[in-house]
Structures are given as C-alpha cells and as structure tokens.
Amino acid sequence: METIESIHNLKSTAGSAYSLGWRQMFKYFLYAFLVIVFLGVIQTPVGWTWEMRDIHFPVMFSFFNIFTIAFYIFLVAPLRYGAYKVFLNIIRGGEIKMNELFYGFKDYINIVLANLLLTAIIGIGIVFLIVPGIIFACRLAFVPYLVVDKKMEAVKAVEESWRMTRGHGWTIFLMALMTIPIGIAGLAALGIGIIFSIIWANLAFAAIYAIVIAKKENSDLSV
Prior knowledge:
Layout: H1 4-7, H2 14-27, H3 29-42, H4 44-51, H5 58-92, H6 108-127, H7 131-139, H8 143-149, H9 154-164, H10 169-188, H11 193-222
Helix pairs in contact: 2-11, 3-5, 3-11, 4-5, 5-6, 5-8, 5-11, 6-7, 6-8, 6-9, 7-10, 8-9, 10-11
C-alpha cells in the first residue's frame, strides 16, 4: 500500500503522477467510482438548467442562469472540494471515509471563497488573451488541495500554490494535455472507459500535489 513515506521517493513528473494514480485507482476503484458517480448525480441539475437555454422566455432563462451559478458555487463546489480530499487520501493510501465528501461544509465559507477567488483569477487571465488564464490555472492547481489538506485560508492557499508550483507549471500543463488522449481512449472503449479516464486524471492531479508537498515538507525538516 502506498504511504506518505514512499511518495517522498517519487519524482515530481507527469509520468510519476499518472503512474501513481493508475496504481491507486485499481486498489481503491470502488471508492473512486462512487465519488465520480456522486459528483455526476449532484451536477445533473446544472445540466438540466443549461438545456433550458433554448426556451424563448427571457425571464425564465435569466432565472435558470442565476440558479445554475448559485447551485454550482454554493453546493457543487464544496462537494468537489470534498472529492479532492477523498482522492488525496486514496493517493496516500490512508483510511478512506466517504463522509469526507461533505468536508466542504465543515469549512464552508472558506471553501466557497477559495473557489470564487480561484475562478475569478483564472477567468480574468482568460480574458487577457487566454494564455495568462492557462498559466494561472496551472500555478493555482494546488489551491483546492491546500484548503482541504492543510486547512489554509483562501488567500494563503492561492499564495502557497503559486510558490509550490514554481518549477512545476509545465508539468501540470502537460498533465492537463494528457487528459485529452486519455479521455479519447476512454470514449473509444465503448464509452464506458471514460469513467476510468476521469478517475485516473483526478487521481493523477491529487498525486502531483502529494508528491510536491511531500518533497517540500521533507526539505523543510532537513533545514
């Protein structure tokens, strides 16, 4: 079983992250599968309201837009942060508690603020010719994990993620690009494989965070 100690020995590369994610996916597949199914069910209303865009009633359309945004910010986002925590536990080979899917409601205000801040920064970056948005997304990829793992406040998590990803931005970008062929391969496997692709990608991103922070903590102890 993977432990925090063994993660110290892994390189902070896309290959190591996806390799660790692959191994842990099969060891804890049922847990990871339940997380993905749960998130899929929770986000279903968002899909329904998006389908209402073709209704020719402007007032109703505006209502559904507001509902969709509020639903995502105040319910889906906290649950996604809980999913990050479960995926991180899977990567570390620790005890898996499915009730941690609701962890986002224990630190609700901070998680909502962290998600809003993250979305705003990346959104502003995308407005400025897209490239800055991609850079921000890569450099702030650790924000959700820092919030649920280290219980950092929103602003501090953003600052710490920026520091931690220095030198790892290209790795995270490469990992994001790798989700494309992985997703295509999943769809090609009768469509069912997309579930494995989604789980694998989520675990890989949790893995790169676990690897980088393990090395950081080990370095801090040796100073």
